[in-house]
């Protein structure tokens, strides 16, 4: 059964929901919700009036009452117009509330995901939370849509049931059933028939549709995995083309899509069974109340209008009690969405807790030097990478970190940046000093070339003349006239050009401390020498710490830290 009444599920759903309804937007949101609820109640009242109108209208037909017929048509026009107006604004205002709620939730999730670099830490610490991008973009949308739709639908179903059950009770009269020598009278028998019909339908729907919960959850995950694989193919298209890896990539993509296909086929088969039942159930519901009420009509205990009014009231009661049947697929999807969001929340909380409790203490002090004390760096599996590092780097100094691949050079840079939590020891960084880290692969955001050059600052950070001048110094003169051109620059520019863009950033930003993690690995030695000379001439007071393999880099640094593959180190 869809376990929407499970305590843990309800608590989790409320945990996600309450944040918005008690936020800074709470009064506007609550007022808008109140208007939506009032309109839905008004909608139900219009249905009641239309149900009463059915009695009047069909009785005028049966009685050949021309004046009554014309009057009923006029009444219908008013009711129909009211129904249209309310229906339009119920949908419009509900969508308006939905997008406002989604906007707020998206902002909150993005802030949490980016806070304390959770987006990065989750890659290191949590391998069970797949596709966080989908959870923010798609699952939040579905959560808001389904929560509003199902909640308001349930309220409307309850009010409709309460309104029409009295009509059905009063109109259906009593049914006398002879049992042996006695007779049993059932008051409001049509109401009880509607209850029985709906409860039986709900029970059978649950039995048939139960597997849809897990199937929908799996479908979302398989779809996201397939989409992620396509994105990776696009992002690494050049490398794949150079390796000639199309056959292997197609095999992997086909394998992932096969999982989408197989699971969707299972959804189809289960949905087919459910649709067989719900469609039959709905079609029988059209004629069922007329058949049950026909004996009273043919015995002249009611007129045609009363018969059709009973049929309409029966339909409304049955629809209300069959809310679960009509919403079963949505309820299954809702539960899987809540489950995914709760898992995402828990993963972000775990990461934040680990980040707060990390053994490597990164602090900021008034001392202008950077101090590393008894630093041990570990891999996520606990394996020791670097042990007992003691290091002091004074302002204006320059240090080159060297060693074989995999010895922990880049991980040391991540530790100095405060984003690597595994290990022990302490790092004290000068307070109120501007630090800039240049990784081996420079990040280029979507947008203009100017956006890439100034990242992470906005376009007013530096004047165009200054940008062009620095780009020319960094041997990017061919790009100076393309600052306002929008491209996917990470694919347009070569790896070497991207690294030179990073040097432009460094010179424009004028950091107090500059960390370069193999930032010239794709640049020839002559250009590398030119760029380092440029750094020394343009950044006179900047402390430079570099990671690299080339011996040519020794010429541009005063000291050298050498790390071996056993975790030992020496300072020269």
How are the elements arranged and paired?
Blueprint: H1 7-21, H2 26-62, H3 66-114, H4 118-125, H5 132-172, E1 174-179, E2 182-187, H6 189-209, H7 212-235, H8 237-243, H9 246-298, H10 304-321, H11 323-357, E3 360-365, E4 370-378, E5 384-393, E6 398-402, H12 409-417, E7 423-430, E8 435-438, E9 447-448, H13 449-454, H14 464-473, E10 486-487, H15 489-492, H16 495-509, E11 513-517, H17 525-538, E12 543-547, E13 559-563, E14 569-571
Parallel strand pairs: 3-7, 6-12, 6-13, 8-11, 11-12
Antiparallel strand pairs: 1-2, 4-5, 4-7, 9-10, 13-14
Account of the protein in words:
This protein is α/β, with parallel strands linked by helices and 572 residues long. It folds into 2 domains: 7-356, ABC transporter type 1, transmembrane domain (ABC transporter transmembrane region fold); 360-571, Rossmann fold. Helix content is 64%, strand content 13%. The chain is built from 17 helices and 14 strands. It has helices at residues 7-21, 26-62, 66-114, 118-125, 132-172, 189-209, 212-235, 237-243, 246-298, 304-321, 323-357, 409-417, 449-454, 464-473, 489-492, 495-509, 525-538; strands at residues 174-179, 182-187, 360-365, 370-378, 384-393, 398-402, 423-430, 435-438, 447-448, 486-487, 513-517, 543-547, 559-563, 569-571. The strands form 4 sheets. It has a 6-stranded mixed β-sheet, with helices on both faces. It has a 4-stranded mixed β-sheet with strand order 3-7-4-5, covered by helices on one side. Strand 13 and strand 14 form a beta hairpin. Its main location: membrane. It is a multi-pass membrane protein. Pfam families: ABC_membrane_2, ABC_tran. This is Xenobiotic-transporting ATPase. Residues 34-333 form the ABC transmembrane type-1 domain.
